[in-house]
Design goal:
The complex is a heterotetramer. By secondary structure, chain A is mainly α. Chain A is built from four helices and no strands. In chain B, strands 1-2 form a two-stranded antiparallel ribbon. Chain B is globular, with a radius of gyration of 23 Å. Classes of the chains: A mainly alpha, B mainly alpha, C mainly alpha, D mainly alpha.
């Protein structure tokens, strides 16, 4: 169904090429990755991970539009759901960390090493 | 043959294990009972082993008392037992040592007696299994499994520095045998096409045989003739040396040959008397046995090329080991190094590829088991009394322990191969075989044989030098140390333990023929198989082809003991 | 809008997972009716029952012919069923070992076992998912459950830290995996593995970068789950911090499930692309993992951490088997056995099925050995020492042979099995792995493998040395026994020793299981 | 019936006796076993009885065996003691001998050794010497060891020795001979170190054994060369060779298969087949076709083998360069020195070469070497003996010297004379040693002749016998020593080695010098011990004569050393021409028959069979007397006259050097023993402990462990670092992918 829509609208309206979306997604992904590596606050790091997931989502959607099928959309929904679950558990863990040592900065969370 | 005959080897191998289960049930406190049960187990095993030895007909087929059933057939394994002359002889040696080892340790081992005897019994099973298994992987399994109980023997009941020695022993031997495992798997794949593959000795050997013949045929030809080879022969041409090297390394470490011998002194020095006896008596023979049964027959050409090198190592081992002995202050270390020297004779005899040499080598294996085993046993008695291994702490013992001294001196003479003792026969035959061999020709100049022989014969002098030096330091001279003045002579139990050794020294020295007769057939076959590798040697396929019983039709049924008809044997066990 | 018509047969493969989930729900519900101090050992029993039932179903499934279910979102093949079986074995043993563990810490709560069951369900589903999103979801199901389990114990800093690290890095890696999936979807226009194969080959021609990037990302996602070097960094910390039974479950189940997914994805997609890529990828990973894992384990005095590193090393051996899967012509890769392999070597199918067999058997063997070992670690540890970090010190094992000979023998068996010494199951499994490696001509890897495992034997033996050759230290804490732990130990020891000599039905199952759907 | 007839009709027929030859060995062995195991409980008297009767029984059997070797049918005068040579044709007999084969000892491949015993006139003679002198010495010992509490051990060893020595003599092949060869070495090791509580004595025993082992090393290699030689011979020889040796190829190879590879008869046949001029395929100059010896000639290998045997014999018979053990061997009880180190064991080398005379004469080089070695040893020993003050040491060196004389004889081809000297020497040297023992026994174990003296009045029997024996060894007419020694010198003078003519004269004049020296130092010992005044430093004021068990053997031996002179007298007629022939030469001619045949064809040695003329006798006698007279003058007149005045420096220097045995032991210590010990020490410390074990083995482990503990610090515990690593790996993977794409 969505494919038909695309087909109908295609000729008369100029549209943003897929590659832009992809590049944006890639940029988001890299930013997320970078953030995970550099940010100090556990919560922010967690947000960066979410950023990565959403980059994946964006990619899915972009490709879904390119292929004009629904698989990508469905995937995106699944991912959002999973991300929500992750968020829940993640926050719980961060709270546990905070309880146990009163800080959520990663440099404090390194008792186990070597 | 009766059901009993078909299962005789099973019985011999697993009887100790069964008794181990029995010992396991005994309460740990009941030291006496535990010892008694173990001793009985060993005695019964000795009886069956001796029976198996008697049942072995020198004139019969190569492998006798065979037993074979399906086992892991998906992986190309089968549970296959059988003995040839050499295996039978070594089996006899093993079961002979069993009860004596138990007797020797009755007072030596004072703590954790139950575990000790369990370890002994398990060790016995693994060693016997390695000797009789005709499936190469089965052999490998036993070969490695025997490390575990020995490792415990050394590590738990050993002397002060035992843990280092145990771990060293274990890892040292493991590294070699693991590489061998890879080579073994490679042989498994190349020896026969997919579907027909099996780890069975016969199928592996027969699978390689034709390729080996092609290879040796082309090595006889002009240089570069081997590049035109195809198929398996080409593979062997390219990778045979490496595969052989893997096998040789594993077994050389076990023997041990120079320069991979350094685990031996530590292990021997630290091991308890039982450990030393078994280590010297049986375990080292696994290396020589491996060369004899696997390494050289599988890769005759590579072996042929490596012969001068390995023979040189053996000769170095003889002289070097003897020289090491002269530099020792520690009696057990001295005996350990003397083992290096003696095993050098065994290896030299094997590489001489002459009837005299190989038979002498096999006989020397038995001799070494007896004389060195007895030396460790006797020193164990001394160590129990004095708890020191340094020669400097002894001196003039003969005054207080005359009987002990006599026994020790007799064994010493056997160890330095005085004629009339068993040691002489083996050493003489090995040296004779070396002098008659074509080692020199293999090394490039026929006259080099003389050099090999002469250097090996040097061991005769050095052997006397270090053994008598030790004997003098320990037994003769004045009683300088006060601690030694009240040493008690051997008690009845100890005498009974030593007596069998002394008797065998005489018997094997004066009537070696019965033993030699059983060794001879496997010698001739071994030499024929090794000769496949010598360029231009004419060896009939019938001479060297390994004939064993086929797999029983339906799994887990006792195999028919009569050798299957040739048609059945022509193809190795088919995999369903 | 067409509703797919699903027959009952479509649910057949799900039954084990369903059983597990149901069990979990029952546990959670039962919690409601329990007082704070009620005894909760029945929960472990229930878990074990669920595990056994699921395992039995899995075994029953194993003899079903391989076919797609749920419109190809999942498959039922002996491969996945065997993995489910492995997972259930791990789950059952871990559950048994956690009874006394939790009681000692007064942390018996129903959600623990429930989470275990959920995780196990996720694993078994992961093993049979045949579509990238399904795969991702199942992966997350098991991951999230394990995140929770990891930081289950609230006292002390370690559990939360472990949980945090595991969670952050796990989420990171699953994001990576997901992104890879997205790229592949873009390249092929489908997320069903079976449908992707065809387009993939054409996409490889048009936009190779996309395909390669996707595959790499996907691969690294899995590499994280199986703890392959250099994606292994989380492992020691998480394994150390997590409750020991959970560590056991992770080391056994998670690894198994991840390997299942890995093998399935890359085998299926591998048909679409030049197999050289996965071969190189996995050989490299295998090499690094074996060597680094073993090297890192050598200096460890902390047994739990040592086992963590050793589990990395074992992932390396498994990766050798995986690499062997992608050798298209036996011996063609390194030519170490020369052209004769064309005559002597097995045809690809046989080689491949051998490799699969090796991987599966290895997973089973490792499950038994590792779970057993972790169980023993768990009975020796004490919460008070965890902060000091001495809870898992080698000293704990000193003189164990005198105090608890049975345990010492069991631990020795596990250690030897992990070290691959006959006559244990560990030897047989290593044999199969290296057999397939050699058969496919990966001799180099095989040699590295045996050498590194020789190095491994060193640190395994050290434990044995402490148990058998060290005196009992003064003031050694009392070792109380509990039926569940003993049972777990007896079962795993028996398995380690017996299956090493008499495989029994397992070889038959393996013959079955080595046929994977679409292969 | 006359004497010869009586001697030629044996009470026990050879074919009856042959199967029980083993008893000769078994009896002493049994004695050794009984004394050794039950000796303590049996008590002194019984042990004495057992030991003596064991050897006595062996003696009786030996007499019977000896008798049987020349058994002839009284009526038809036909020889009864002979057997068909298995290596020769059916018509080829071994005469004056009996042999029996007790079956295989060990046989591997085409190599075989049998328990084969053989008695011919040579071994028969030695049997008598060994058992006879052995019995006397056992008898002597019963009194000599009466105060020693471990007498049973002593007699066990002594019997063991006798058994081994008899094996050596009776063996019909090299390997079995080697059993006795090493057996006697072993027994002497035990007996020298009999008083093991004294480290020096134990050390002397070890020195003896190890030195002998050096000889055995050569012996073994020589044996192997023989095996190879036989193999090559059977490969290359053609029928003509065999016919030349009065044999045939199939007979020969059959015998090899059945009798063994290294039997003396077989070697003899081979020797008969290969001399030059026979015109067969195999000659001394024929190169060996194949095998390890490929390219070497038969003659060359034979020479090499003989030289190796010489080294072996040197070890056993205390010749250069291995004579050093014998003087130290005097640490043992004196009867042991008498039996082992004078009468029997040390003569094994001479026996060996006489047994293998057929092979020896094939190589003049080897013969020359033997003779020269003998001469040099003899001279050196004699010179050392000048300055020794220990009576046993003097006798020991004189033994070495006498053995050297025998080697001279062997080397120059006068085998019969060498063997004769062996016998006579056994008598008078045993007598001397036992006399010395009696002297020590009567003087509180005093061995320093400077502290003895004037014993002739106190120990009459000892003095008398010692006097006779001294005359005998000095070579005074008409005692046995004179004749046997002179027979050797005569042969040495007149025999000629092919291409090495100068040797005979050199050796001959050396011999005369030695004779003079012998006379000198023996006289010296005699005078200092028995004549003059009793020394001030004597341990006991008055010596006492020993018991009859000790004096009786002395008397018997003294008598024997007189009467055995008869053997050297030319009373017989040579078989061929009727020339007069010494009794002993005639007696041994069957043994050396094949040797003579070879010499006849091969022309390697020119043997002279003339008997010495009166002139020679007188000359030799003068030499001996002059030596003795000089000693007499010096020690009766010269030194007593200028007692107290310091001797001139050069004299003292010479004396010190001689006293220290020309520092040969020190030389060996410095040149051989030290280096070996040092090398072994260095090897152990550097190669074994350091290079192999520490560097190679532990080094690997160490490096692995270090790498591991270095790597673990990458594990920083920082989650972000972990993520970074993963990201880097990811980057690497992508990079690889891109490279793939770009290609």
């Amino acid at each position: 169904m969505a494919a038909q829509v695309v087909a109908r609208e295609a000729p008369n309206r100029p549209m943003v090429p897929i590659s832009y979306y992809l590049l944006l997604a890639a940029a988001l992904f890299c930013m997320g990755m970078f953030g995970v590596m550099v940010r100090r606050n556990a919560l922010v790091i967690f947000m960066c991970v979410e950023l990565m997931l959403n980059a994946a989502n964006l990619t899915f959607l972009a490709f879904a539009r390119m292929h004009g099928d629904s698989v990508g959309h469905v995937s995106a929904f699944f991912v959002i759901a999973v991300a929500a679950a992750e968020a829940a558990i993640g926050l719980a863990i961060v709270i546990a960390v905070f309880r146990s040592r009163g800080s959520v900065l990663v440099e404090d969370i390194r008792t186990m090493k070597h | 043959m009766s059901f009993f005959d078909t299962h005789l080897l099973n019985l011999v191998v697993f009887l100790p294990l069964v008794f181990a289960a029995l010992v396991l049930m005994l309460p740990a406190g009941e030291a006496g009972q535990i010892r008694a049960v173990t001793f009985i187990a060993m005695l019964v095993d000795l009886a069956f082993g001796a029976w198996a030895y008697m049942r072995f007909e020198p004139g019969g087929p190569e492998f006798q008392l065979e037993y074979r059933v399906h086992w892991f057939k998906e992986f190309g394994l089968s549970y296959h037992l059988g003995v040839d002359g050499l295996a039978a002889s070594l089996l006899l040696l093993t079961v002979f040592l069993g009860p004596l080892v138990v007797l020797a340790s009755t007072t030596y081992i004072s703590h954790r007696i139950k575990e000790f005897h369990l370890a002994l019994l398990v060790l016995q099973t693994t060693m016997l299994g390695a000797l009789v298994s005709l499936d190469v992987l089965l052999f490998y399994i036993f070969f490695e499994a025997m490390l575990i109980p020995m490792y415990l023997l050394v590590g738990v009941w050993g002397a002060e520095d035992r843990q280092m020695a145990a771990v060293k022993f274990f890892l040292y031997t493991l590294v070699g045998s693991l590489l061998m495992l890879v080579a073994l798997i490679a042989v498994y794949f190349i020896s026969s096409p997919a579907g027909a593959r099996s780890f069975d000795y016969s199928s592996m050997y027969n699978g390689l045989l034709d390729a080996n013949r092609q290879l040796s045929a082309c090595t006889a030809g002009p240089p570069g003739a081997c590049d035109s080879l195809t198929g398996l022969a080409a593979t062997l041409h390219t990778y045979g040396p490496w595969l052989f090297a893997a096998f040789a390394l594993a077994f050389a470490i076990k023997v041990p040959m120079w320069p991979v011998h350094t685990w031996l002194p530590d292990a021997h020095v630290q091991a308890p008397v039982a450990g030393s006896m078994i280590l010297a008596g049986v375990m080292l023979k696994m290396g020589t046995f491996g060369f004899w049964r696997y390494a050289i027959p599988f890769f005759p050409v590579a072996a042929q090329n490596a012969r001068p090198f390995l023979a040189t190592l053996a000769v170095i081992g003889i002289v070097y080991g003897a020289l090491m002995c002269l530099a020792q202050r520690d009696i057990k270390k001295l005996i350990a190094y003397s083992s290096v020297s003696h095993l050098g004779y065994c290896m030299l005899g094997i590489f001489a590829l002459t009837a005299e040499g190989a038979t002498g080598s096999a006989y020397q294996m038995l001799n070494h088991g007896i004389s060195t085993g007895a030396l460790f046993l006797l020193f164990g008695f001394l160590y129990e009394r004095r708890h020191t291994r340094l020669m400097a702490d002894f001196g003039g013992i003969a005054k207080v322990m005359p009987v002990f001294t006599v026994a020790f001196v007799i064994i010493t003479f056997s160890s330095v191969a005085v004629p009339g003792t068993n040691g002489f026969i083996g050493e003489f035959l090995v040296l004779l075989g070396t002098f008659k061999s074509d080692l020199g020709a293999a090394a490039g100049n026929p006259h080099l044989t003389m050099v090999f022989g002469a250097f090996a014969t040097l061991g005769v002098i050095l052997g006397a030098a270090y053994m008598l030096w030790m004997v003098q330091k320990v037994f003769f001279g004045g009683l300088t140390h006060r601690e030694n003045q009240h040493l008690t002579d051997m008690n009845l139990r100890e005498m009974l333990t030593v007596l069998p050794f002394i008797i065998l020294v005489g018997v094997m020295g004066l009537m070696p023929q019965p033993f030699l007769d059983r060794i001879e057939p496997s010698t001739s076959r071994f030499i024929a198989r090794a000769r496949v590798g010598t360029p231009g040697a004419t060896v009939e396929t019938e001479q060297v082809r390994v004939e064993v019983m086929g797999l029983p039709a339906q799994p887990t049924a006792a195999a028919p003991s009569a050798p299957a008809p040739l048609a059945a044997r022509a193809v190795p066990s088919p995999r369903p | 809008m067409i509703l797919p018509n699903l027959t009952l047969a479509d649910f057949l493969p799900l039954i084990p997972a369903i059983i597990l989930v149901v069990g979990a729900c029952i546990l959670l519900l039962s919690e409601v009716f329990l007082g704070a101090h009620a005894s909760r050992s029945y929960q472990a029993v229930l878990t074990v029952v669920a595990a056994v039932a699921a395992g039995a179903m899995a075994v029953a499934n194993m003899f079903e012919p391989a076919h797609e279910v749920f419109l190809g979102f999942g498959v039922l093949d002996p491969f996945s069923s065997f993995l489910t079986f492995v997972v259930c074995v791990g789950l059952g043993l871990a559950a048994l070992s956690s009874v006394s563990f939790l009681r000692k810490r007064g942390a018996e709560r129903g959600e623990f076992y429930a989470l275990m069951l959920f995780a196990a369900a996720g694993m078994s589903l992961l093993a049979l998912s045949n579509e990238l999103i399904t795969l991702f979801v199942n992966l997350e199901v098991l991951s999230i459950a394990t995140y929770a389990l990891t930081s289950y114990l609230r006292r002390g800093t370690r559990p939360s830290e472990a949980g945090f690290k595991y969670f952050i890095l796990g989420a990171f890696s699953s994001a990576v995996l997901l992104y890879g999936a997205a790229l592949l979807y873009g390249a092929t226009g489908s997320t069903k593995l079976t449908d992707m194969v065809g387009p993939l080959s054409s996409a490889l021609a048009t936009q190779p970068a996309l395909v390669y990037a996707g595959l790499i990302l996907l691969g690294s996602g899995f590499a994280f789950k199986v703890a392959a070097v250099p994606f292994h960094m989380w492992t020691p910390d998480v394994y150390e911090g997590a409750p020991t039974p959970v560590t056991a479950l992770m080391s056994a189940g998670v690894k198994a499930a991840a390997f299942a997914a890995l093998v399935r994805v890359f085998l299926t997609l591998g048909k679409g692309i030049d197999p050289h890529l996965p071969l190189v990828l996995f050989s490299t990973l295998a090499f690094l993992t074996m060597v680094v894992g073993n090297l890192l384990a050598i200096p460890q005095r902390n047994v739990k951490r040592m086992l963590a590193y050793s589990s990395i090393a074992h992932a390396g051996y498994l990766l050798v088997g995986v690499a062997a899967l992608f050798v298209t012509a036996p011996g063609e890769q390194f030519r170490l056995l020369g052209p004769s392999e064309l005559t002597g070597g097995s045809p690809v199918e046989l080689a491949r099925s051998q490799a699969l067999r090796g991987i599966l058997f290895y997973l089973l063997a490792y499950t038994f050995s590792a779970v057993g070992a972790f169980t023993l670690v768990s009975v020796l540890e004490r919460r008070e020492d965890e902060e000091k970090g001495t809870a898992w010190d080698l000293e704990r094992f000193s003189g164990l042979a005198q105090r608890r000979p049975g345990w010492a023998v069991a631990m020795a068996a596990f250690m030897l099995s992990l070290g691959g010494i006959p006559p244990t199951i560990g030897f047989m499994s290593k044999l199969l792995i290296f057999q397939s490696a050699v058969d496919s001509g990966l001799i180099g890897l095989a040699i590295i493998g045996v050498l590194s495992s020789a190095a491994g034997v060193y640190y395994y033996l050290r434990v044995v040395v402490y148990m058998f050759m060290r005196p009992v230290p003064e003031g050694a804490l009392t070792l109380e026994r509990s039926w569940s732990t003993e049972l777990a130990l007896v079962l795993s020891t028996a398995a380690v020793l017996v299956f090493g000599i008499l495989p029994g039905p397992i070889t038959a199952w393996l013959q079955q299981a080595s046929s994977i759907f679409g292969q | 019936m006359n004497l010869s007839q009586f001697l030629q009709t044996a009470p026990v027929a050879p074919d009856v006796l042959a199967p029980s030859l083993w008893l000769i060995i078994a009896l002493p062995l049994l004695g050794a076993f009984i004394c050794g195991v039950f000796g303590k409980m049996l008590g002194r008297a019984n042990v004495n009885l057992v030991a003596c009767s064991a050897v006595g029984g062996a003696f009786v059997l030996s007499v019977l065996a000896f008798w049987a070797t020349s058994d002839t049918d009284p009526e038809s005068r036909r020889l009864l003691s002979f057997f068909v040579n298995p290596f020769g044709t059916e018509r080829d007999y071994v005469r004056y001998a009996l042999a029996h084969d007790y079956g295989t000892w060990f046989a591997v491949g085409d190599f075989r050794v049998n328990f084969g015993l053989m008695v011919d006139h040579l071994s028969g003679t030695l049997l008598l010497v060994i058992t006879g002198v052995g019995f006397l010495i056992h008898l002597y010992s019963t009194s000599y060891m009466e105060h020693d509490e471990s007498y049973w051990r002593y007699f066990a060893y002594l019997n063991l020795f006798v058994a081994a020595m008899l094996t050596l003599v009776l063996a019909d092949n090299l390997v079995l001979l080697f059993v006795g060869w090493e057996g006697v070495g072993m027994a002497s090791y035990l007996l020298i170190g009999f008083w093991y509580t004294d480290p020096a004595k134990a050390w002397a025993g070890r020195k003896a054994f190890v030195t002998n082992r050096i000889g055995d090393f050569a012996f073994l290699i020589a044996t192997f060369l023989m095996v190879l030689l036989v193999g090559a011979f059977t490969e290359q020889a053609n029928e003509r060779d065999y016919t030349m040796a009065n044999s045939s190829s199939q007979r020969y190879s059959a015998a090899l298969q059945e009798k063994g590879t290294v039997t003396f008869l077989g070697l003899q046949k081979m020797a008969e087949a290969i001399p030059e001029g026979g015109g067969g395929a195999v000659m001394l100059s024929t190169p060996i076709a194949a095998g390890p010896l490929e390219g070497y000639t038969f003659g060359g290998v034979m020479t090499a083998a003989m030289l190796l045997f010489l080294l072996g014999a040197a070890g056993k018979s205390a010749q250069l360069p291995l004579y050093v053990w014998l003087p130290d061997a005097m640490a043992g009880p004196t009867p042991v020195s008498a039996l082992i180190h004078a009468a029997t064991m040390v003569t094994a080398g001479v026996y060996l070469f006489s047994r293998m005379s057929a092979l020896l004469v094939l190589s003049p080089t080897a013969m020359a070497t033997v003779a020269i070695i003998g001469a040099l040893t003899s001279l050196l020993a004699a010179l050392i003996a000048f300055a020794q003050d220990d009576i046993k040491k003097v006798l020991a060196y004189s033994t070495v010297s006498q053995l050297g004389i025998m080697f001279m004889g062997v080397g120059m081809g006068v085998f019969w004379a060498a063997v004769l000297h062996l016998v006579t020497h056994a008598f008078f040297k045993a007598c001397l040693f036992l006399g010395a023992g009696s002297v020590m026994h009567g003087n509180g174990d005093e061995t320093d002749i400077k502290k003895l003296g004037g014993l002739r009045h106190e120990m009459k029997w000892t003095w008398g016998t010692f006097f006779v024996a001294t005359l005998a060894i000095t070579g005074i007419i008409p005692l046995s020593g004179f004749f046997s020694k002179d027979a050797i010198f005569h042969g040495v003078h007149h025999n000629h080695l092919e291409g090495l003519h100068w040797v005979s004269s050199v050796v001959y004049y050396l011999g005369l010098l030695i004779a003079a020296c012998t006379a000198f130092y023996m006289t010296r010992v005699y005078l200092l011990t028995f004549e003059g005044q009793r020394s001030k430093e004597a341990k006991l004021a008055h010596a006492h004569e020993s018991a009859w068990q000790m004096t009786l053997p002395l008397v018997v031996l003294a008598v024997l050393s007189v009467v055995s002179a008869v053997y050297a007298w030319p009373l017989m007629k040579a078989p061929g021409d009727g020339r007069p022939q010494p009794v002993f030469e005639n007696f041994l001619s069957p043994v050396f028959a094949s040797m003579n045949r070879i010499v006849a064809t091969g022309k390697t040695v020119a043997l002279d069979t003339s008997v010495p003329a009166m002139g020679d006798y007188v000359f030799a006698w003068l030499v001996a007397v002059s030596g003795g007279a000089l000693a007499g003058f010096l020690y009766l007149r010269f030194f007593p006259a200028r007692a107290g005045q310091p001797a001139p420096a050069f004299a003292r220097a010479v004396r010190r050097t001689a006293q220290n045995k020309f520092y040969v032991d020190e030389l060996y210590e410095l040149a051989i023993i030290r280096p070996v010990k040092f090398m072994s020490f260095i090897l152990f410390r550097v190669v074994d402990a350091l290079l192999i074990d520490t560097v190679a083995v532990r080094g690997t482990a160490w490096v692995t462990a270090r790498v591991g503990s270095a790597l673990r610090y990458v594990q920083s515990g920082d989650a972000q670092a972990y993520a970074a690593v993963m990201a880097l790996a990811l980057l690497g993977g992508v990079a690889y992918a891109l490279i793939q794409v770009l290609q």
